[in-house]
Amino acid sequence: MTGQPDRWAELTGGQAGEEYAQRFARLAESGHDIHGEAAFCDALLKPAARVLDAGCGTGRIAIRLAELGHHCTGVDVDASMLAVARRDAPSQEWLLGDLARLDTLGPEPDFDLALAAGNVIPLLAPGTESGVVRQLAAVLRSGGLLVTGMGLDAAHLPLSEPPVTLTEFDEWCTEAGLTLRQRYATWSGDPYDADGGYAVSVHSRTAM
C-alpha cells in the first residue's frame, strides 16, 4: 500500500453514493439500458455462478446479476456507495473493504468471475494497481474470469489523463497468472479498436 487515497476518493470525497445512484436512475427513466455490464457477464457464466463485484459502488451490476440468478458479493471502499447498495438489496452480501486487501472474503474464496467495471482499475490508489490485479486473480477458481472495463483517454475517464495503459494492465494480469481471452470496445461487444478510448477485457485464470 502506498498510503495515498484512491483517485475515486480524491474526486468525490467519499460522499457520492446518492448522486451516483440518482444519475443511473435518471438514465433508466429516460430509456437507457443501464444493465450492459451485467448482460455481458451473464453471457460468460453458467447458471448460479459466484461473482465478485470489485468496486461495486451502489450495487447496480451485482443486483442485476443476482436477479439473473447468480450469487454476488460486492466490495467497495466507499461507504456512501455501499449504503445505497445495502438499502436497495439488503439480502445481498456487501463488504466495505480495500481491493488491495481482500482478506475479508475468507481464507479460500472461489469465484467464477471477478468484475472491475466503471474504471475501477484507473481509479485505484497510485501504486496499488498491480497488487489489486493479483488479489482479484487470487479469488478466482481455476479457469475463472476477470472482467474489466476501463477508459484509455480523458474522454472516457473523470481524469485529465489516463494513469494506466492497457500494456501495463496486461503485464500485471500475466504476472498474476491471467491470460487475455477477449477484448472489446464496449459492453455491447463491439470490436476493440486500438485507437479507441475504452476497453472491456476478459482474462482467465490459468488452469491449475
Automatic annotation (TrEMBL):
InterPro entries xrefs: Methyltransf_25, SAM-dependent_MTases_sf
A Pfam family matched in the record: Methyltransf_25
Coiled coil: none
Keywords: Methyltransferase, Transferase
Entries under Gene3D superfamilies matching the protein: Vaccinia Virus protein VP39 (3.40.50.150)
GO biological process: methylation
Limits of the Methyltransferase domain: 51-144
Keyword Chaperone: no
UniProt xrefs under SUPFAM superfamilies: S-adenosyl-L-methionine-dependent methyltransferases
Molecular function per GO: polyprenyldihydroxybenzoate methyltransferase activity
Keyword Lipid biosynthesis: no
Protein name: Methyltransferase domain-containing protein
Lineage, uppermost ranks: Bacteria, Bacillati, Actinomycetota, Actinomycetes, Kitasatosporales
